[in-house]
Structure formats: structure tokens, C-alpha cells
Amino acid sequence: ILTNILVRSVALGIVAVGQTFVMIGASIDLSVAFTISLTAVLTSQLMQGDPARVPMAILVVLAIGVIIGLSNGLIITKLNVNPFIATLGTGLIISGILNGTFANYKGVVPKSFQSFGYDSIGPVPISVLTLLIVVLVGWFILSRTKFGAHLYGVGGSREIGRLSGLRTARVLIGAHIICSLTAVLTGLFIVSRLGAGAPWVGPDGVYALESVAATVIGGTALSGGRGGVFGTLAGVLIFSVIDTVFNQLGVDTYLKTVFRGAIIILAVASYSFRSDREAS
After folding, report:
1. Which end of the chain is more exposed for a tag (fewer CB within 10 A), N or C?
2. How far apart are CA 221 and CA 179, in angstroms?
3. CA proximity to 33, closest of 44, 48, 18
4. Which of 215, 222, 213 minimizes the C-alpha distance to 263?
């Protein structure tokens, strides 16, 4: 059961780490679900079951992830578009391209690539190790690098950060690139599990909203400037435990969704209550 909970946490956990970065910077990324779908479809389409094409396919989708993150960051910082609207718009553009080009599962990944989703090193699944590495790298960047310190500063107050000499636009663009790259990694994990990509795998997983929810439950402030990846991981694990317990009990899917919504509301409400008490 523990292994199932951990594997269930991988897809959401990886992208939620990236969402933590943009939310610490007082931004948000609602395009991640469509980036996940785009990654899954392109990966299987480019690989075509040939192990020799794996490195090329991975490099292509990573490059596309950088372009998506860069686009989001530039639209937000240079065009001064609200992050919610900017990333939603980017997501809709990706969705339109996907749905207009692909109608079903496309291509296939080689058996060797599926080891990412199914194989283990000793008792630990490779995918779980990948999630732990992503969390540790995220923690290191946020707590041990100048970029991390600047990101917290920008999230606390972009204007104060700018007056302090921080390159606020560059910092936010960097956070959005990191977020898009984690969405790409989640897409690679999902397609390794499914064997082929389809346009609906990202939106069906509700990864945009759930990554935001897990990040908030983990203590990252919606207003920016506060939070961390270990709290986000805890939020993801809470969701995974709920899913596992409800599945074991045979609880209705819709009731499970209602319960998740209640948890999100309670988490945000308790955070707001603590913030008000600290302010007073």
C-alpha cells in the first residue's frame, strides 16, 4: 500500500514542485496540464517504439517546455498580463493545437522507456526516486541559491524587489521555465506508464488545479513570498492517501472530489487565520 501511495504521488508531485516555484513568486501556471498532454503525445509520436529515438524525443520535449515557460514568463512580466489569464491563455492555445492535430492515442514508446514508470531499483520504484530527486533539487534551489532568495523577495513584494536591485522579470521567467520543465517530466512519466500519449491525459488528471491545491495545502502562500517544496510534497501525499483509502473503501468518485474540495477550503482558511493572527 505504501508503494502504491508513493507511485500515485509521482505525477502530481513533480509538477507541484514546479507550481511551488511560481507561487512563491506570487504567480501561477494553469497551462501545466496541457503541457503534460503535449509532452505525452509528442514523446510517443517521436519515439515510435524505437529505443534509439528516446534521447532525441526527450530533448525535443524539454526544449518545448523551456519555450512554454519562457512564453508564460515574458507575457506576465513584459506585457503585464495577469498570471492567471496569461497561463490560461497559453494552455488554451496548446489545447487547441493538440485537439486539432491529434484525436486519439498517437505513437508508442519503447519497452525500455517504460522502465521509468514501472521498474524499481531494489525496493524503490525509479519514478519515486525521480520525485525525491526533483524535491531535493527544488529544495536546494530555493534554500541554497541566490535565485531562490531572489524568488522569495520578488514574491514578497515585486516593487520592493525591483527597488532593491533584483531583476524581477528574469526571476519570474526562470520560475515559469522551471514549472514548465516539471510539467514535461510529469508528461514523460505518464507516457511511460500508458505506453502512448493522448491529448486528454493532462486535463483529465486535473493537474493544474490539483498542483495549486497541493501547494497551498503544503503551506505556500497564494500571495507569494512563503512556502517550500517539502510542504508541497506533504500536500501531495495527503491527496494520495485520500485516494488510496477511498479506493480501498469503494467510495464514490464524486464524493471523493467533494472531500478534496473541502480539504482545500479548510487548508486555505486555516492558513488565512494563522496569517491574520501573526499580523496582529
Report:
1. C
2. 17
3. 18
4. 213
pLDDT tens per residue, range 164-183: 778 889 999 999 999 999 99
Angle CA 271–277–280, to nearest 5: 140
| CA distance linking residue 130 with residue 266, whole number of Å | 30
pLDDT tens, residue by residue, 191-241? 999 999 988 999 988 899 899 989 988 889 888 889 999 999 999 998 898
What is each CA distance from 13 to 57, 109, 196, 218, 254, in whole angstroms?
A: 23, 23, 21, 12, 22
**Considering the entire predicted model, what is its pTM?**
0.93
Angle in degrees, 0-180, between the axes of helices 126-144 and 229-249, rounded to the nearest 10: 150
Q: Which of 241, 6, 246 is nearest to 130 (CA)?
A: 6
pLDDT for 18 equals 97
Alpha carbons 229 and 246: distance in angstroms, whole number: 26
